[in-house]
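Incident log, support desk, overnight shift.

02:14 A customer reports that sequence design results differ from what the structure should imply. Their input is reproduced verbatim below. On-call engineer (initials T.W.) acknowledged and began investigating.
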């Protein structure tokens, strides 16, 4: 049986309060669950679990907790430029973009307070 029921992405964060505030402000999505070490947000069929770094060893040991940009999370939007303008009003700065990519998407990227990189992508045909 193929493993295709992708359900949750867990992102380890050093400051759960700062991360939760950023996600509430930036994405305006529903908090599904929260306690003093985590905040789970519902993203149209997938959940994003912000989890305090102190909890990571119980999930990833014996691997060490990684640092830096090791992955990119992409959200499809109708208008990248409009979303970039909205993010700018929230004080969120872009890492790159908006730029038209050769694979038919217009993209822009930003990072959350823990350094997780998010990309906004718009189909441009």
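02:41 Re-run completed on a clean worker. Output:
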């Amino acid at each position: 049986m193929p493993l295709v029921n992708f359900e949750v992405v867990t992102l380890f964060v050093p400051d759960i309060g700062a991360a939760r505030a950023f996600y509430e402000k930036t994405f305006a999505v529903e908090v599904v669950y929260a306690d003093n070490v985590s905040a789970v947000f519902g993203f149209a069929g997938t959940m994003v679990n912000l989890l305090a770094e102190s909890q990571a060893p119980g999930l990833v040991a014996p691997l060490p907790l990684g640092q830096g940009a090791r992955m990119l999370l992409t959200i499809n939007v109708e208008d990248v430029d409009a979303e970039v303008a909205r993010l700018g009003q929230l004080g969120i700065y872009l890492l790159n973009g908006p730029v038209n990519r050769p694979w038919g998407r217009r993209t822009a990227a930003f990072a959350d307070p823990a350094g997780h990189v998010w990309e906004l992508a718009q189909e441009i045909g």
